[in-house]
Design goal:
mainly alpha; Arc Repressor Mutant, subunit A; about 65% helix; 3 domains
């Protein structure tokens, strides 16, 4: 019988629970997931919403799922990719993380956002400052898309003697 990623509808409830937990553990083994993100992925695999809620609640009680830990790891990975606080906040919100947890994760990132923006700009456009209005606009849009604030972008575009 070929392998199917969808659940058999008439499977035994205990088998369904075991399969749901196994699928959740497989997802968690790859990377951290937030509570809502994990539930969405499990529901997408054909598991019943009540079963998914129960399994995720048990995993959270066991300390295997934590929105705080997920938000911290997610923020750290996005900072390393050169993304700014607004973009990180938006992506965490899309994944179902609460506002308080998002704010705490971004505050705990403890990084110099201007330096992150400057590094992203240099990686993409080189160390030279924007030569004209067109290139300045292009770099501004790039940094804005990356999620940096107007002030962070302005300071990242400034040329200073202490960079590099």
């Amino acid at each position: 019988m070929p392998f199917s990623s969808k659940l058999e509808p008439d499977a035994d409830p205990l088998v369904q629970r075991r399969d749901c937990r196994k699928r959740a553990m497989d997802l968690l083994a790859r990377r951290e997931h937030g509570r809502e993100e994990l539930a969405r992925k499990l529901a997408g695999k054909g598991f019943d919403s009540e079963l998914v809620a129960d399994v995720v609640a048990v995993l959270e009680a066991d300390g295997l799922v934590a929105d705080e830990r997920f938000a911290e790891a997610f923020t750290r990975s996005r900072v390393n990719r050169g993304q700014g606080p607004r973009r990180i906040e938006l992506e965490l919100r899309e994944r179902g993380v609460g506002e308080a947890i998002i704010g705490e994760a971004i505050a705990q990132a403890d990084c110099d956002w201007v330096s992150v923006a400057r590094a992203a700009r240099i990686k993409r456009f080189g160390a030279a400052s924007p030569a004209d209005l067109r290139s300045r606009g292009q770099q501004t849009r790039f940094l804005s898309y990356r999620g940096f604030t107007g002030e962070q972008i302005k300071r990242a575009l400034e040329v200073s003697d202490d960079t590099d």
